Amino acid sequence: MTAKPKLRIILCAPRGFCAGVVRAIDVVERALQIYGAPVYVRHEIVHNKYVVDSLRAKGVVFIKELSEAPAGPAPVIFSAHGVAKAVPEEARARNLFTIDATCPLVTKVHREAQVHFKRGRHVILIGHVGHPEVIGTMGQLPTGAATLVSSAAEVEELRFEPQAPLAYVTQTTLSVDDTREIVAALKRRFPQIYAPPLEDICYATTNRQEAVKRAAAMVEAVIVVGAANSSNSQRLREVAEREGCAVAQLVPSVDEIDWRAFGAVRSLAITAGASAPEILVERIVDAFAERFRIAVETLTTADEAMFFPLPRSLREAQAG
Ligand code: SF4
């Protein structure tokens, strides 16, 4: 029997669940405890199949639109990505009982956009077309009050006067490096543009990108655990590629690893998007241990202590 080859594994820290995802999952779990099944969730509560399937097994019904939720006592939960204003309005009109699991850092961006609008500024949203968070943020303002841009090239196509009252906000899960370029392009064309008082890209996105950037420079390959529709996970894979990793795979689970790429690899970094549970990372490490003699270390580039309390309605319902 041939000896297994050696493999150095660097686990990026921080990785995986952020405070907004922990809170959103907690909201659903508590709602199940308090109100019983079924609990309805509009959109995937977070972009992760493992999480969604586990909740579905406990009695959660995932729906695309509110129209799929029956009127009655069963709660309807809005996902961590946030929703357009029209959604709670429709829920009120139908007398639905709703609980909002929008991440407070997304809500902060919604508020910024609303304040700019009230002050007469047109809002430029930097984000990805079709992402639910972008739909929710655009939907805080009347049609035509915000413009979405996804690249520096799109900034060049904007047709505003240089002195036009403009402000920008961003999706929370963007590439830190790409966004810097887009903001620079905006400031070059519109020097008066209002910037967010604090970064809109959230702490979790920033920390996970920084960790994988540092680790990717030390290894031959990177695995990012996360869903294809998870924006922050996609960005982690891009960061690894840009650092020159020839192998940078985004995989939802161990079953999706393309093992052919790892034959000659002797060093690997593993990270996970903000919606990917740690058990998926553990299973991947175990699968590598079956094929390699692994030596695992952790590279910590930031400490995270962020915590978001549950929505007040749930805390009160539980206390009562
Ligand atoms: S990635 Fe950031 S904005 Fe999104 S849920 Fe997590 S903490 Fe909130």
Brief descriptors of the model:
flat, Cobalt-precorrin-4 Transmethylase, domain 1, four-stranded parallel sheet, 320 residues, 11 helices, alpha/beta, single chain, Rossmann fold, binds iron/sulfur cluster, 3 domains
How is this structure best summarized?
The protein has 320 residues and is an alpha/beta fold.
Helix and strand arrangement:
Elements: E1 6-13, H1 19-35, E2 39-42, H2 49-57, E3 60-63, E4 76-78, H3 86-93, E5 98-100, H4 104-118, E6 122-126, H5 132-138, E7 146-149, H6 152-156, E8 166-170, H7 176-189, H8 203-216, E9 221-225, H9 231-242, E10 247-251, E11 267-272, H10 278-291, E12 293-300, H11 312-319
Parallel strand pairs: 1-11, 1-12, 2-3, 2-4, 4-5, 6-7, 6-8, 9-10, 9-11
Helix pairs in contact: 8-9
The protein binds iron/sulfur cluster.
Iron/sulfur cluster is lined by residues 18-21, 80, 103, 105-106, 172-173, 202, 204-205, 232, 274.
